Amino acid sequence: MKRLLVAASVAMFAVCAAGADTVKDGSVSVKPGKWLWKQETSIIGFGSKEQNLECLIPEEANITLSKLANDLQKGCAVDNVREISGGYLFKLKCSGKYTGDADATLIHTDTMMKINAKGSVSLAFIPAGFSMKSDATYQGDCSQAEIDKARTRWMKKNPGKPPMGPVPATP
Asked: Are 91 and 120 within 8 A, CB to CB?
């Protein structure tokens, strides 16, 4: 579950506008560069805190909420996506390794994002409450070495898709 929540906070940086009160999906977009994210997670009262600094390349800066959910875990999806001022409200539903639902809120600008989620998961068939708060802030440009490393990682995960910038040299 911890990995699921961490992946959500890393990937969901900022959201573009949708065209209706209830939309099937949302679109997430942020400024490429170095991002600092901090997350607090609590499952049945036991908490953890994490922090990470990461280079986000243009190829990773635009994604739908549905793809984000599926990237968290095969079998995760979003439902009841609703546009709000500065972001979205949505339901995250997962089945598979971890099964559960969460009500989530994502508020953003192009250089800041906040996610709050609260729900329950099944741990060994026992329902357990959890909550997660995540904040991400843009820190500036990535170095060329950081960009090359991130683009190499992206290309391995997305074979056949053309990168948006120069391909890093292979050692």
From this structure: no
Q: What is the pTM of this model?
A: 0.73
Please report whether residue 20 resides in a domain.
Answer: yes
Q: Is residue 133 part of a domain?
A: yes
Q: Over 60: is that where the pLDDT of 19 sits? A: no
Q: Which domain holds residue 142?
A: 2-157
Residue 18 lies in a domain: yes
Task: Tell me which residue of 79, 121, 82 sits closest to 98, measured CA to CA.
Answer: 121
